[in-house]
Every structure is written in C-alpha cells, then in structure tokens.
Write a structure and sequence with these properties.
- The chain is α/β, with parallel strands linked by helices.
- The chain has helices at residues 3-6, 26-36, 56-68, 85-97, 123-133, 153-166, 179-191, 208-218, 224-233, 237-257, 271-285; strands spanning 12-17, 43-46, 73-79, 102-106, 137-142, 170-175, 198-202, 262-266.
- The chain has an eight-stranded parallel β-barrel with strand order 1-2-3-4-5-6-7-8, surrounded by four helices.
- Strand 4 (102-106), helix 5 and strand 5 (137-142) form a beta-alpha-beta unit.
- Helix 2 packs parallel to helix 11 (271-285) and helix 9 packs antiparallel against helix 10 (237-257).
- The chain binds flavin-adenine dinucleotide.
- The site of flavin-adenine dinucleotide (FAD) has 23 residues, from strand 3, helix 5, helix 6 and strand 6.
Length: 287
C-alpha cells in the first residue's frame, strides 16, 4: 500500500529503524522487529547509510522483510548524494521487484571526506527523477527549525516546496523537542501552499551524550525543561530512559490534541521504547 493513502483514514503512527552496522549484529534488527510488530505501526521506515555506510542492500533486505515477513507496510530511505542516475534506476527497480511501494527520497549530508556523485545535488532532483520513472510513493524530509545548512527557515521552506512540486506526497520532520516550533512550521508550510500530510518526528531521548551530538549536527534547540531532565537524571540510566519516554509521550499527546497528521517515532531499534509509548497513546491516537 502507498503510505500517503493511510492519512485519508487515520492519524498515522510509524517507526524508523536502521540496519545494524556489522554482520555480527545483523540478527538484532529482526529481534527488534519481533517486538515492534506488537505495537501496531502503520508503517516502518528503514534508513539508508545514516551514520556512514552506503549498503543499500541492507535497507532493501530489511524493508522487504518488514513488508513480507512482518506484514507491515515499509518505506525504504534512499540518499541521492553519493549515487549516480544509473544506480538510482537500479535501486528503484529492485524496490519494485521486491514489492516495496514507498521510498523516502533524501539528499544526504555533505561530508568533508566524500565527493558527491554529482547527479543529485538536492533532494528535489531525486524526487523528480523517481517520479518520472516509477509509480513509487515518494516521501521527503523537512525541518521545523530549518535545515542547518540553509540560511533561513523562509528559504528552506521555498526549497521544501520544490520537493513537493517535484512529486513528494508526504513529509516527515526532523525530530524537535519544542512543539511550538512544529506549529509555527505548519503555519509557514500552509502559507507556502504545501498541503500534503506532514508527520511529526519524535525522538524519545534516553542518553545525554547522544542527544548533545545530534543536536549539534542537526541544529535542534534544547528547551530548558528538557535540559533540566537530562541534567538531573544523567547518572541514572533507568530514570533518564523513563523521563525521556515521558517527555516524548507528553509531546505526542499535545500533537494529537492539535490534530497532527501523524507521528513518526525515531526509536533507535528499541522495541521497549516503542511499546511504552504505544501503550500510553494508543487510545488517544485512535480517538
Ligand atoms: P534537501 O531537501 O536537498 O535539503 C538540503 C539543504 O539544501 C537544505 O538546507 C535546503 O534548504 C537546501 N536546498 C534544497 N534545494 C535547494 C536548491 N535548489 N538550491 C539551494 N539550496 C537548496 N540521512 C541519511 O544519510 N540516511 C537516511 O536514511 C536519512 N533519513 C532521514 C529521515 C528523515 C525523516 C530526516 C528528517 C532526515 C534523514 N536523513 C538521512 C538526514 C538527511 O539526509 C540530511 O538532513 C541532509 O542534510 C538533507 O537531506 P534532505 O533530503 O532534506 O535535503
């Protein structure tokens, strides 16, 4: 099923997973999926080379398993920056041969030590390329606080509109920790004429160091309320995990009360986190 169709029926709940880094850890993703399947996601998306590698075979393998073995709709991420047109053509035909109907088309981060392949400078070019050559549903990324590489939020939204006009049918946001940033972003997208569904990306934060690293990389604001929790519980892993989950639940309930199109959970392959959040919000999300 094309994931964009889901939004016509309900508030969509999805989870993002990533392929394990080494062959030795390959089994861990399936252990995680065994747990995640119990919490009824509408779809699961599988990252592509996030944090380094470019092994798209793993993304494809996991996305196919999600769809056929776990019987959950899947979305394969695809990053254009280091791919040629020929490679993208091969990947989209492999996705189609494997019955995968949805792709999240990304540019990817510009890394100092790698040379971009040059065929896709920005994600809108990748979106247009896929749109012209396949019937896949195309998702794209967006940034409530602005992409860190863009000079202003206004300019970033202009670029986002190009991705939508090129053929994206659904957007997923970068995670944010202050819902007000998301509501302001929605107003801006509406003013820019963007009317496709936008899912709010929520990251349940359970580790202070990793959040500080991500915040630096992604340019996310750290609200005072959030920092107090991190500082107070940083030396007590169980308390920090529970407080991080509670913070995410609080954000989600507020988003649902604002009739958000959907929630996309960055659960970092942790079924425990998914289960705790699902149990807390399941009656609210379906109300
Ligand atoms: P773009 O939409 O191309 O935007 C990148 C920058 O270029 C922005 O600053 C934008 O304003 C600017 N820009 C866009 N078009 C133009 C133009 N025509 N002229 C000038 N400037 C322009 N990374 C991975 O490697 N693997 C993943 O699986 C992955 N999954 C992700 C999932 C989500 C939901 C999100 C939010 C991010 C994900 N990322 C992933 C990270 C992503 O690759 C980076 O944030 C990357 O820096 C931007 O990708 P993009 O597709 O948003 O790029």
């Amino acid at each position: 099923m094309k994931t964009s169709k889901l939004f016509k029926e309900k508030t969509v709940l999805s989870y993002e997973v990533f392929p394990p880094k080494t062959e030795d850890d390959a089994h861990t993703i399936y252990e995680a999926l065994d747990g995640i399947r119990e919490v009824m996601p509408d779809f699961i998306s599988v990252t592509y080379g996030a944090g380094g590698g470019t092994n798209c075979a793993k993304t494809l393998e996991i996305a196919a398993a999600v769809k056929h073995q776990y019987k959950i709709e899947s979305v394969a991420h695809l990053r254009g920056i280091d791919l040629s047109r020929q490679e993208v053509l091969r990947i989209i035909s492999e996705l189609e041969e494997n019955g995968i109907e949805n792709v999240l088309a990304l540019r990817g981060d510009v890394m100092p030590d790698t040379v971009p392949a040059g065929d896709f400078r920005y994600a809108d070019e990748l979106v247009a390329f896929i749109r012209e050559r396949s019937d896949l549903d195309i998702l794209a990324a967006c940034y409530p606080e602005g992409h860190p590489g863009c000079e202003s939020i206004a300019k970033d939204i202009e670029h986002l509109k190009r991705k939508v006009d090129a053929g994206a049918s659904q957007l997923i946001t970068q995670f944010f920790l202050d819902n007000e940033d998301f509501y302001r972003f929605l107003e801006r997208t509406q003013a820019a004429g963007i009317s496709i569904p936008i899912q709010a990306g929520i990251m349940p934060v359970t580790n202070r160091k990793s959040i500080e690293r991500m915040v630096k990389m992604c340019g996310i604001k750290l609200p005072k309320k959030f920092m107090r929790i991190m500082e107070r519980y940083e030396h007590s892993p169980a308390a920090l995990r529970d407080a991080g989950i509670a913070y995410a639940i609080d954000q989600i309930i507020d988003l649902l009360a604002h009739d958000v199109d959907g929630i996309h959970l960055y659960i970092m392959n942790k079924p425990y986190t998914a289960k705790r959040i699902y149990e807390a919000v399941q009656n609210i999300i379906s109300a």
